[in-house]
UniProtKB/TrEMBL annotation:
Keywords: Cell wall, Peptidoglycan-anchor, Secreted, Signal
Species annotation: Limosilactobacillus reuteri
Region (Disordered): 1-30, 158-254
Lineage: Bacteria, Bacillati, Bacillota, Bacilli, Lactobacillales
Domain of life: Bacteria
InterPro entries: LPXTG_anchor (IPR019931), Mub_B2 (IPR041495)
NCBIfam families noted in UniProt: LPXTG_anchor
Stretches assigned to the Gram-positive cocci surface proteins LPxTG domain: 247-281
Compositionally biased intervals (Low complexity): 162-189, 219-246
Biased composition (Pro residues): 190-204
Name of the protein: LPXTG cell wall anchor domain-containing protein
Length: 281
């Protein structure tokens, strides 16, 4: 037999005593190597770092006919020295981000495998004026790589300082690690100092003019009521007739005297009533 445990120099006689007899087969008939290779390049295909290469060795044992040199078991199966290739963690390269963070582990097969990791330059924080034009003589600042992930940049990156100008934000979290982020800077508006206000003295309060009380209107004296004349007694006509009969010659004189007496009596009553009212007032 010939194989990994029974190696023979290919092309040498199977029977040392018969130099022209059957020869041992080529090594690749019972031992082969296959690889899994990861390439690291930029967008233009330029090499960014050395390839990561893993190798698997496949072997089998063959039986050789010593008379004819023929392989008796040409369909003998192959056995690999490992069942799979290891996962490859993609390294961080400053100033670039990779298109993948790792190359997964894969099963070994009897063929060469290849993977490619492509790196792209990170974007920049670009200071611009309010019209979107880059500010002269102010360089763009590249994003900072995430040290734990080759596909990312760090968030909340502080924006650069531009003398005499104020940015509209203080930090930037890129929406995409390879796309630039413009940051608008403006000149500060000069502040016009306010004119101090001179306090005015308070005007003294004008005292209120006291209200002049209106003089009381004196009560009007009551108008004296005219005394009511007492009703004269009406004497019955019968006695008068009788008197007339007794004094027929003096009837008119007596009547006049009676009328005068009644008038005098009424006047006296009025005067007395007036005096009494004046005393009461």
């Amino acid at each position: 037999p010939v194989g990994p445990n029974n190696p023979h120099e290919p092309g040498t006689p199977v029977n040392p005593d018969e130099p022209n007899g059957p020869k041992w087969p080529a090594k690749d008939t019972y031992t082969k190597e296959y690889t899994s290779t990861v390439h690291f390049v930029d967008n233009s295909g330029n090499k960014m770092r050395d390839d990561d290469v893993q190798t698997s060795t496949w072997t089998r044992t063959l039986i050789i006919d010593k008379v004819t040199g023929q392989i008796i078991n040409p369909d003998e199966g192959w056995t690999a020295d490992k069942g799979s290739y290891n996962e490859v963690k993609v390294p961080v390269i400053n100033g670039y981000v990779a298109d993948k963070a790792n190359v997964p582990a894969k099963e070994t097969v009897q063929q060469n495998l290849e993977d490619t990791v492509t790196y792209t330059k990170v974007g920049n924080i670009v200071p611009v004026d309010p019209n979107g034009n880059p500010i002269p003589n102010v360089p763009a600042v590249p994003y900072t790589n995430d040290p734990t992930d080759p596909t990312k940049v760090v968030p909340n990156e502080p924006v650069p300082s531009v003398p005499g100008m104020t940015p509209n934000v203080t930090t930037v979290t890129p929406t995409h690690p390879t796309v630039d982020t413009p940051v608008v800077y403006t000149m500060p508006t000069p502040v016009t100092p306010e004119t101090p206000v001179t306090p005015q003295p308070d005007e003294p309060a004008t005292p209120e003019t006291p209200a002049t009380p209106a003089p009381a209107t004196p009560a009007q004296p009551a108008t004296p009521q005219a005394p009511v004349a007492p009703q004269a007694k009406t004497e019955s006509a019968a006695p008068a007739k009788q008197a007339a009969k007794k004094l027929p010659q003096t009837g008119n004189e007596n009547n006049s005297a009676a009328a005068l007496g009644l008038a005098a009596l009424g006047l006296t009553g009025l005067l007395a009533a007036g005096k009494k009212r004046r005393k009461e007032d």
